[in-house]
Write a structure and sequence with these properties.
This protein is α/β, with parallel strands linked by helices. About 45% of the residues lie in helices and about 10% in strands. This is Dihydrodipicolinate synthase family protein.
Length: about 300
C-alpha cells in the first residue's frame, strides 16, 4: 500500500521561459525551491499551468527531473503523464518514474473521448497501471482538451486499486466533493480541491488540501489556510480565503503569463512573463493592477504572509 501524500498546498508549477521561449532552467529550480521554502506540502509539475501541451516529450521529462532535483526530497513531486495513446501515456509514466517522481498523474480527458463511457476510461487506466508496475498514480480533471469529470463509481474504483494517491478535483461543487471525499475514506487516495473559494468547505468535509492557481503565487497563505481552517479565528480564516480568491481571479485573464508577472513583482523570483501557450504579453494596462495588488497585500498584515516573500 502506498504512503498517503501530505495534506496542504500543492502548487501546479508554472514553467519559466526565456525571451526566446526556451525553458529557463535556473528559474525552474529557483521557483521549486521558493515553493518549498514557503510551505508547500508537495509540488505538481508538468501540469496545465506548466504549459504541458506546449512542451516536447523530452522537455516534460527533463522538467520533472529538474524539479525533483531542486526539491531534493524535501516534499513529494508529481507530474502528468501526457500522450495521445495508451502507449504514449504509459511511456511517459515510465519516464517520470525514472525521473524520480512520487506519482505520475493521469490527465482525465486523455484516457477516453467525450462520447466514451467511464468503463472505457477505466479500461485505459488499467492498461497504463499494468504497464508501469510499482509506480503510484494520480488523476487530474484537466479542462483541456475537454473537461471530463469522473463519476462517483470511477472514483470508487480508483480508491479500491491501491495505486492512486492524488486526485485533483475540478468539479467546483461542494456536494460532489463531499461525496467523493466520503468514497475515498480509508484508501491512500487523497482529495485536493482546485477551487480556492470553496477550499475551507472541502477541508471541513475531510479534503486533504488544495492544488490550483492560488498556491502558485501565495503558497504560504494556502498552507496556512489548510493547517488552520478549523482552529484559527474564523474571521481570519474567511479573510485569507477571500484574499486568495481575489488574487486568483486577478491572474485569470492572462494566465499563466499574469502569474509569472505577478511573482516577478511580489517575490524573490525573477522569472519573465513569457509563455508558449498564450504568447500575448503583459502590458501596463494588465500589469499595473497586479503590481498594486501585490503591494497592497504586502502591508495587509495577513497571517503567515512572509515579509518580502523571501
Amino acid at each position: 500500500m502506498p504512503t498517503p501524500l501530505p495534506d496542504g498546498a500543492w502548487p501546479v508549477m508554472l514553467t519559466p521561459f526565456r525571451a526566446d521561449r526556451s525553458i529557463d532552467w535556473e528559474q525552474v529550480e529557483a521557483y521549486a525551491d521558493w515553493l518549498v521554502d514557503l510551505g508547500s506540502a508537495g509540488v505538481f509539475t508538468v501540469a496545465l499551468s506548466s504549459e504541458m501541451y506546449d512542451l516536447t516529450p523530452v522537455e516534460r521529462l527533463e522538467l520533472a527531473g529538474r524539479v525533483v532535483g531542486a526539491v531534493d526530497g524535501r516534499v513529494p513531486v508529481i507530474a502528468s503523464a501526457v500522450g495521445g495513446s495508451v502507449d504514449e501515456i504509459a511511456e511517459s509514466a515510465a519516464g517520470l518514474a525514472e525521473a524520480g517522481v512520487t506519482a505520475a498523474v493521469l490527465v482525465s480527458p486523455l484516457l477516453a473521448t467525450p462520447d466514451e463511457p467511464d468503463s472505457e476510461w477505466i479500461r485505459t487506466a488499467e492498461q497504463i497501471l499494468d504497464r508501469v508496475p510499482g509506480l503510484d498514480f494520480g488523476v487530474y480533471e484537466c479542462p483541456v482538451p475537454y473537461k471530463r469529470l469522473l463519476t462517483l463509481e470511477t472514483v470508487r474504483w480508483m480508491s479500491g486499486t491501491g495505486r492512486f494517491t492524488f486526485f485533483k478535483d475540478t468539479s467546483h461543487r461542494a456536494d460532489v466533493m463531499a461525496a467523493r471525499i466520503d468514497v475515498l475514506a480509508g484508501s491512500p487516495l487523497r482529495h485536493y480541491n482546485a477551487e480556492i473559494s470553496s477550499l475551507v468547505e472541502s477541508l471541513g468535509a475531510g479534503g486533504a488540501g488544495f492544488s490550483g492557481y492560488a498556491a502558485n503565487i501565495y503558497p504560504e497563505l494556502v498552507a496556512w489556510l489548510c493547517a488552520n481552517h478549523a482552529t484559527a479565528p474564523q474571521e481570519e480564516v474567511a479573510t485569507v480565503q477571500q484574499v486568495l480568491s481575489i488574487a486568483e481571479h486577478s491572474i485569470n485573464a492572462r494566465y499563466p503569463s499574469s502569474a509569472k508577472f505577478f511573482l516577478a513583482h511580489s517575490s524573490r523570483l525573477t522569472m519573465s512573463s513569457v509563455s508558449r501557450w498564450k504568447p500575448e504579453g503583459i502590458g501596463p494596462h494588465e500589469g499595473q493592477p497586479l503590481i498594486d495588488l501585490a503591494r497592497y497585500l504586502e502591508g495587509a498584515g495577513l497571517p503567515a504572509l512572509t515579509p518580502g516573500r523571501r
